[in-house]
Amino acid sequence: MITQVTKGIKISVNTSFEGTFFKNYKMHFAFGYTITIENQSKAPVQLTSRHWQIYDSLNDLEILDGEGVIGKKPVIKPGDSHTYSSGCLLTSTIGAMKGHYNMVTLTNSEKFRVYIPTFKFSAPFALN
Predict the structure, then answer these.
(1) Does the reported pTM lie above 0.90?
(2) What is the structure's pLDDT at 127?
(3) 25, 31, 79, 81: which could join 121 in a potential S-S bond, CB 3.0 to 4.6 Å?
(4) What domains are there in the chain, each with its CATH number?
(5) What pLDDT score was predicted for residue 128?
(6) SS3 call for 93
(7) Would you put residue 80 in left (φ > 0), alpha (ψ -120 to 50) or beta?
(8) Which Gene3D superfamilies match (predicted)?
């Protein structure tokens, strides 16, 4: 598990290899990740958007920006957490992701970023 804390918000990431399949006549490697966002601060916060940098060892860097996470903009009270799972397709057996969440403190409308640490993907058979 990879973890990082920014302004009292703890991000924890677990990754998994989900398998291989063909898409558009090319082999792809599917990876999953589960992220837990824990509010260790004293104020409720809301996640409003996300920014991802996806590294594929055989492709260019891919940048993704979007609203919330998996269709939600969770409000996380002090001491609570929000967990979600998602996935990533790569054209190689090795890659990584990092990024940040844009958050707002609900008591004073302060906007801030919470950094997501770099987490790596590797198919088990790729590293012998």
Answers:
(1) yes
(2) 65
(3) 31
(4) 2-120 (2.60.40.1470)
(5) 57
(6) coil
(7) beta
(8) ApaG domain
